[in-house]
Write a structure and sequence with these properties.
With 324 residues, the chain is an alpha+beta fold. It has 2 domains: 1-118 and 218-311, no CATH class; 125-214, no CATH class. The protein has helices spanning 50-64, 92-97, 135-138, 183-189, 194-197, 205-213, 273-281, 284-290, and strands at 8-17, 24-28, 35-37, 47-48, 99-100, 106-107, 111-113, 116-123, 130-133, 153-155, 161-164, 167-173, 200-202, 217-221, 237-241, 247-255, 261-262, 265-266, 303-310. Strands 1, 4, 7, 8, 9, 13, 16 and 19 form an 8-stranded mixed β-sheet that branches. It has a 3-stranded mixed β-sheet with strand order 10-12-11, with no helix packed on it. The chain is flat and about 65 Å long. The model is unreliable at 312-324 (pLDDT under 50).
Length: 324
């Protein structure tokens, strides 16, 4: 299908944490840890906000395109000496990620990022690591599985019981689930490693949240007094993170540049939704090496983008031929 006839094109991305990832809430409180990570307010499952993905993707794409730091910055002229975003229709960073011009207005950008949700979560078991998921998480791949019951774990294997961290559950076969076989090609098409596909299991939506939240990585840090070389009094704090090899999924919806103008000028930096995504994808190698979130100087944050695919929803963004 010709990109020029699409209003938008959604791309579903899969990524794997190659370090623990900490995207904090920006506040401390009473609880298990001092610095908690962002969670979905309904399911309480940790996530990476779309604003975090968009922000680092903009910065890294600007690095890749040689437009750093101006078009990767805050955008407002005069703030901290910045000259602001260039705002030119020929700038791939400004048109793909948007720009601000204060009272003079701006441009929303052609790439929209969803939150990144946990698709597969690694948990220690007596049989080694197992990556768990649930029907709610799988829906992010536009796929449904049915037949999952509470208080059981579904997997390929012959054991009668399996521990997922602290909880021991009876094991049921994948054969008890509907549409589970159709999930395998989807995961393979997103370049999910074989060692994960061969060791994943399914639990109910209710159990998924409990297992995830009780198996997060928790670390302790402390400031060192330079005079004594020992821990500084009162500087001890703890923080949590998504563990290494967590698999996340998020959508990037790419709008058709031909439907938008920058001021009164036609967008020239990109011409199709595919072009928009290619600008976003220039940030992916930087995500793998420079990371996302906080604590990056403490061995956290690197995220490897495994692959992306268009979804069936893209047909809904098709306009009639000749439409403007």
């Amino acid at each position: 299908m010709n990109d020029n006839h699409q209003s938008y094109q959604p791309k579903t991305n899969l990524g794997m944490a190659i370090d623990p990832i900490h995207v904090g809430t920006g506040a401390t409180g009473l609880g298990r840890v001092d610095n908690a990570i962002v969670r979905d307010p309904v399911t309480r499952v940790p996530k990476i906000p779309g604003s975090s993905l968009a922000g680092v993707s903009r910065t890294y794409a600007a690095m890749a395109k040689g437009r750093f730091p101006n078009c990767a910055g805050l955008g407002q002229t005069g703030r901290g000496g910045s000259i602001g975003h260039c705002g030119k229709p020929s700038c791939p960073i400004c048109v793909v990620f948007g720009f601000a011009r204060g009272n003079a207005g701006g441009f929303a950008g052609l790439a929209a990022f969803s939150d990144a949700h946990v698709l597969l979560f690694p948990v220690a078991s007596r049989e080694g690591p197992v990556w768990i998921t649930c029907p709610m998480a799988i829906r992010a791949l536009k796929h449904e599985i049915d037949g999952v019951k509470d208080n059981a774990v579904y997997r390929a294997g012959s054991s009668q019981h399996l521990n997922l961290g602290w909880i021991l559950l009876p094991v049921k076969s994948f054969d008890a689930l509907d549409n589970i076989g159709n999930l395998m090609p989807i995961l393979q098409n997103h370049n999910l490693p074989d060692y994960v596909r061969e060791r994943f299991a399914v639990v109910s939506d209710k159990l998924f949240s409990h297992v995830v939240n009780t198996n997060l990585e928790v670390r302790t840090s402390v400031a060192i007094d330079p005079q004594t070389g020992a821990a500084e009094e009162g500087a001890l704090f703890t923080y949590e993170a998504l563990p290494r090899t967590t698999v996340l999924t998020w959508d990037v919806t790419c709008r058709n540049p031909s439907h938008f103008k920058v001021g009164a000028e036609t967008v020239t930096a990109v011409t199709t939704p595919t072009d928009v995504y290619e600008i976003v994808a220039t940030a992916h190698p930087y995500l793998e090496h420079l990371g996302i979130g906080g604590m990056s100087t403490r061995g956290m944050g690197r995220l490897r983008v495994l692959g992306a695919s268009s979804t069936g929803a893209e047909s809904a963004g098709t306009t009639a031929k000749g439409a403007s």
